């Protein structure tokens, strides 16, 4: 059979939505300056779907530094991989400043979070080793684990008893193979908003020998007294062997990093293939990241503002009887019950008639019958935005409960 013909028959789990949803739910265009109010299909919408947690994406000081750095260095500089010809004092300075901020001996920059963590997992383990990881892990972790040639166990989300059982099995295996154990979790899970149970996990070291990798994409810059992340929040930053975050969320940029003891970071520098065989981060991104880190460190009021909005939003939803699950972070999932068709009608109503834009999560990402409207608060939102949103959610929830979206087919979606 022709390969492409076969692909197009199926189109993949997301590609199946292309025909009806493209331009609306898939690949929508948000236009205008990055802010709570942006344009969607020509109309202003209140946007709750950008991971611009502390408002750095369009911060005037950040924009100025980004522009200056691009003018001075261009996007080409430096050329080549870090290891060969693409290293600079700015890359090293950013690594030193990140290390000091997240309290790790050493830091290595990564060009992208997704690629970086995949490739790092690949570099950390061989077929003798065992990986044990949380079932709610991000695709980049799941795909990194897929590269692993040895045994892996996935434990139910945040289930420490199950983790213990798998660690006992992993220990037996590694005693035979002579390998080690890598536990992987997230600091903040991006869908549920649950924190990873880092404290409980590090306590298991009393009974098991393992190394811990934490992906803190959503925790870096939002959690902890200084914004250094979920390890700081739970008082266990020292116990995290490898602390990873992307620049794509609170830093509102591109790139990522991993911190740990110097010896293991040095090992990674020489073994993470996505860095060795890829061009170094362009200078404007590095200089821009230095500026963002400075603001993240020196303007705690940005994080405080984020939390004012988070509290108002989450308290408001709870007070109005909404189920927002067990989130204890900024990520705010509003759980509703309905079919995929109802979800589409409801989300469309929200965008068209209430001017609110947020992500809609449906089956197969969540079980059939569940709809999640995922709200990402930021420091740039206002309390008036929160009020407007809760009023709109009350209205759409009532319509959903009354069966309005079952009858009122604004769009046709296959189940
Ligand atoms: N890990 C987590 C938990 C994420 O949410 C993301 C998505 N930004 C990534 C890794 C990938 O990061 P990047 O966008 O930098 O590739």
Largest sheet: 7 strands, mixed
Question: Major sheet: order of its strands?
Answer: 4-10-9-8-7-5-6
Number of strands: 14
Write down the Rg.
22 Å
* Ligand identities: 4'-deoxy-4'-aminopyridoxal-5'-phosphate
CATH superfamily of the largest domain: Type I PLP-dependent aspartate aminotransferase-like (Major domain)
Keywords:
Aspartate Aminotransferase, domain 2; single chain; alpha/beta; seven-stranded mixed β-sheet; Aspartate Aminotransferase, domain 1; binds 4'-deoxy-4'-aminopyridoxal-5'-phosphate
What does this structure look like?
The protein is built from 16 helices and 14 strands. It has 415 residues and is α/β, with parallel strands linked by helices. The protein folds into 2 domains: 11-47 and 300-407, Aspartate Aminotransferase, domain 1, CATH 3.90.1150.10; 60-298, Type I PLP-dependent aspartate aminotransferase-like (Major domain) (Aspartate Aminotransferase, domain 2, 3-Layer(aba) Sandwich), CATH 3.40.640.10. The strands form 3 sheets. The chain has a 7-stranded mixed sheet. A 4-stranded mixed sheet has the order 1-2-3-12. Strands 11-14-13 form a 3-stranded antiparallel sheet, with helices on one face. α5 packs parallel to α6 (139-146), α13 (300-319) packs parallel to α15 and α14 packs across α15. The longest helix is centred in the last third of the chain and has 20 residues, at 300-319. The protein is globular. Residues 112-114, 117, 138, 140, 186, 190, 215, 217, 246, 248, 256 line the site of 4'-deoxy-4'-aminopyridoxal-5'-phosphate.
């Amino acid at each position: 059979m022709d390969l492409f013909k076969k692909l197009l028959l199926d189109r993949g789990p997301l590609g199946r939505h292309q025909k009806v949803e493209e331009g609306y739910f898939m690949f929508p265009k948000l236009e205008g300056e990055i802010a709570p109010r942006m344009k969607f299909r020509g109309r202003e919408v209140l946007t709750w779907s950008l991971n611009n947690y502390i408002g750095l994406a369009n911060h005037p000081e950040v924009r100025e530094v980004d522009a200056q750095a691009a003018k001075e260095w261009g996007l080409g500089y430096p050329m080549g991989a870090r290891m060969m010809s693409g290293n600079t004092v700015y890359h090293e300075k950013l690594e030193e400043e990140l290390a000091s901020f997240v309290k790790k001996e050493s830091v290595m920059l990564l060009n992208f979070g997704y690629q970086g963590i995949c490739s790092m997992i690949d570099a950390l383990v061989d077929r003798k080793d065992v990986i044990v990881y949380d079932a709610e892990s991000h695709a980049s972790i799941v795909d990194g684990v897929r590269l692993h040639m040895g045994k892996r166990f996935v434990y139910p989300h945040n289930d420490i008893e199950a983790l213990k059982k798998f660690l006992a099995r992993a220990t037996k295996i590694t005693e035979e193979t002579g390998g080690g154990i890598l536990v992987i979790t997230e600091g903040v899970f991006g869908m549920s908003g649950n924190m990873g149970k880092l404290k409980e996990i590090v306590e298991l070291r009393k009974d098991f020998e393992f190394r811990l990798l934490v992906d803190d994409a959503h925790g870096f810059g939002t959690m902890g007294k200084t914004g250094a992340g979920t390890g700081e929040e739970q008082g266990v930053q020292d116990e995290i062997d490898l602390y990873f975050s992307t620049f794509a969320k609170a830093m509102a940029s591109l790139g990522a990093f991993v911190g740990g003891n110097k010896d293991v970071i040095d090992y990674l520098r020489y073994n993470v293939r996505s860095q060795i065989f890829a061009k170094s981060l362009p200078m404007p991104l590095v200089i821009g990241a230095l500026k963002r880190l400075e603001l993240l460190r020196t303007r705690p009021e940005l994080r405080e503002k984020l939390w004012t909005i988070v509290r108002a939003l989450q308290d408001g939803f709870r007070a109005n009887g909404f189920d927002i699950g067990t989130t204890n972070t900024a990520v705010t999932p509003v759980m509703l019950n309905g079919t995929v068709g109802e979800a589409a009608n409801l989300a469309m109503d929200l965008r068209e008639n209430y001017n609110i834009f947020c992500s809609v999560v449906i089956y197969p990402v969540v079980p059939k019958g569940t709809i999640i409207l995922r709200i990402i608060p930021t420091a740039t939102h206002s309390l008036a935005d929160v009020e407007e949103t809760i009023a709109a959610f009350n209205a759409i929830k009532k319509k959903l409960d009354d069966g309005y979206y079952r009858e009122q087919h604004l769009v046709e979606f296959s189940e």
